[in-house]
Amino acid sequence: xxxxxxxxxxxxxxxxxxxxxxxxxxxxRVSAWLxxxxxxPEDAEVYDAGGNLxxxxxxxxxxxxxxxGQEHKETIATGCAAAVAGGWTSICPMPNTNPINxxxxxxxxxxxxxxxxxxxxxxxxxxxxxxxDGIELAxxxxxxxxxxxxxxxxxxxxxxxxxxxxxxxYARDHSLPVIDHCEDKSLSAGGVMHEGKxxxxxxxxxxxxxxxxxxxxxxxxxxxxxxxxIHIAHVSTAGAVEAVRRAKAEGVRVxxxxxxxxxxxxxxxxxxxxxxxxxxPPLRSxxxxxxxxxxxxDGTIDAIATDHAPHHADEKALEFDRAPFGIIGLETAVxxxxxxxxxxxxxxLEQLVRLCSANPAKIFGLEGRGTLAPGAHADVTIIDPxxxxxxxxxxxxxxxxxxxxxxxxxxxxxxxxxxxxxQVYERNGN
Amino acid sequence: xxxxxxRRDLLGIKDLSAEEVLGILDTAESFREISSRxxxxxxxxxxxxxxxxxxxxSTRTRTSFELAAKRLSADAVNISVSTSSVAKGETLVDTAxxxxxxxxxxxxxxxxxxxxxxxxxxxSKAAIVNAGDGTNEHPTQxxxxxxxxxxxxxxxxxxxxxxxxxxxHSRVARSNIHLLTKLGxxxxxxxxxxxxxxxxxxxxxxxxxxxxxxxxAIEGTDVVMILRIQKERQDSAFFPTLSEYAVHYGLTxxxxxxxxxxAIVLHPGPMxxxxxxxxxxxxxxxxxxxxxxxxxxxxxxxxxxxxTGGRPARDDE
Lengths: 430, 317
Known about the structure:
The complex is a heterodimer.
Chain A: E1 2-6, E2 9-12, E3 17-20, E4 22-26, E5 29-34, E6 45-48, E7 53-56, E8 58-63, H1 76-85, E9 88-93, H2 104-117, E10 121-122, E11 125-126, H3 140-146, E12 150-152, H4 161-173, E13 178-180, H5 185-188, E14 193-194, H6 197-202, E15 206-207, H7 209-226, E16 230-232, H8 238-250, E17 254-258, H9 260-264, H10 286-297, E18 303-304, H11 313-316, H12 333-342, H13 349-363, E19 380-390, E20 409-419, E21 422-426
Parallel strand pairs in A: 1-6, 2-7, 8-9, 9-10, 11-12, 12-13, 13-16, 14-15, 16-17, 17-18
Antiparallel strand pairs in A: 1-4, 2-3, 4-5, 7-19, 19-20, 20-21
Chain B: H1 18-31, E1 49-54, H2 60-71, E2 75-80, H3 83-87, H4 92-100, E3 106-111, H5 116-123, E4 127-133, H6 139-153, E5 160-164, H7 171-182, E6 186-190, E7 208-210, H8 214-218, E8 223-226, H9 231-235, H10 242-249, H11 253-256, E9 264-266, H12 279-282, H13 289-307
Parallel strand pairs in B: 1-2, 1-3, 3-4, 5-6, 5-8, 6-7, 8-9
């Protein structure tokens, strides 16, 4: 079966292409690029991109799919549906499921559930330590053989430098990036928002930026010594961005991602005690947000990742102190990136595609993804940069609705998504 | 949200204007003599239902609100929600909706988490009065403190007030800082740096200073307000021992001598005698701690009256 995506503007920074070009797909892979003046191959189905952008499928390095164990929040199928509706063709779920993804059986289960859903590709992230307890190493190599692409203890970051050093040494042997949610819990314990003027004003316990900075610096030093690849999850502080910037200049193998909420909202959003503004790392103050934007502008930040964290409405309908951390984000990320980064001139479209596709593929070593060069997997995200739309969380594909962005208006959206050459999403259709 | 009064809920002092604060204080003045009558009851809130919803243990604040409601002839019900029943799984939203279905006019709420009154106010049809939320605000405490200060100093504007102790975790300090600075007083706070962060000055635009020592804070003040030291803070290693605290940060007669000769001493209670306040200070003529308790009832009468539809005394002029 052959499919021609025609009349689109191909943006493929990994292949150094940014022009009108038709893309021919065959058996799940890109087989050729055809000039728009060339006649369509006779036996190919045609998808008319109508002048929209044709980009290599977006890859989200950081999601929570809640399956197995917390299917009332999200399942792999519903998470994948939300992903493709947001333009993401591949997503990487964190291991904090129940049980924790700390062994090959669970890794395989997640991949099988994703294949069953037949929407997005799922590349699981395995735990660094058993049960993410920070004590014994998990079977990283076995998980890698089963399909895991990186390791992390995410929200329960490895507490000691000694354990983290050993994890990095071991992960390096197996070419697995180590992802750290940088938070020194001895500084942030009990905190529910960014520590600063607003937390003082609201009487909520703060999580200082320092808790993130200290762990980021620790990890960078360990990566430098061990030669491992450290990927800093969701950077949110000026200090962490600066630490990554310096480490990159020194040649340390460090990469990092940013979430859309950390480049769009500040801790001012917490003022009404809306639990949909509670996440970890927390929404920071304006100085930090500006430093994050600068990190995006100058390329210190490598990727945009959503940290999509579904929680049931009942769990968020609690006191601010007791509500769980996290918001959903798969369907709003592209809109937020357009509003806050592209529209405001922080980055151009090519860099947006780098942050959402080319770089994530490189960071996790996803071969044949992050590009639409002939031979690559035919994962495609079609983007209408001028589409104006309003986010209505009541019709989200996710099982959860915990978002601060309900009712926000955007310009720019993913309008169609293809995975392995098969269309899995069409805006306003299905 | 149609409000019976131009500000239906009392969630905190920080969102009130100086005029609104004065409106509440003047209304309280007009209720003052009711409590000294032989029959301490007027029909102002007859037929109104007030629920005192206390998620956190409190005897004095709850009693004060209850008496305030009864002196205005409202029907007051006390509900203590133990944390164990919350652990059974009822969400805050369900609790609010359940109580709302009983059609109260006002819910007075105390909770150990900041923001709960604000969350309830978004859901509930009843007026919400904050009786203390976590480390955020305790607006009626600040109002009763202001009433006590006005009684003894005849004004707030231009006064110098020291607030000493655990500022970081104090809802009393926050509400007082907002109220006093709105009305033109200057406030100095002091205590161990672990409990009095220097950034605290950013809480209000002007009128607040973080002093470098307790002595500096007290020097030349008209009012010295002492906060209760909670024992669990010591357990969390914010300071080494209670006895060290008493020596270095407590209000002793010697330290009080640095204040103006006619300075008054306030404490929200219950006191830890010999820790944050020396007994001789607590029992001295400077201490107006019992006046605070007395005006607590008066101020809460005014707050309940306004929250359930009454007009402030100031508007009647």
